[in-house]
Amino acid sequence: MARSALEVELRKAATDLFAGDEQSADEWLNKPAKALNNRKPIDMTNSDAELRLALDLIGRLQHGVFT
Description:
- The chain has helices at 5-17, 22-29, 48-62.
- By secondary structure, the protein is mainly alpha-helical.
- Helix 1 packs across helix 2 (22-29) and helix 1 packs parallel to helix 3.
- The relative contact order is 0.18.
């Protein structure tokens, strides 16, 4: 199954968050996140709005902002 452009963007951001560690990024993407109302980040690729929420969470984590 081909990945959507939104999923590719999210996976790249998550991999960057984990300093290139794709396995850690994949594990994080597939765990429910309280900051996303207990949704898995990988499930936030149905729309641009959902993607922005997940990318915003990644940005906050990168900058040490409590979520």
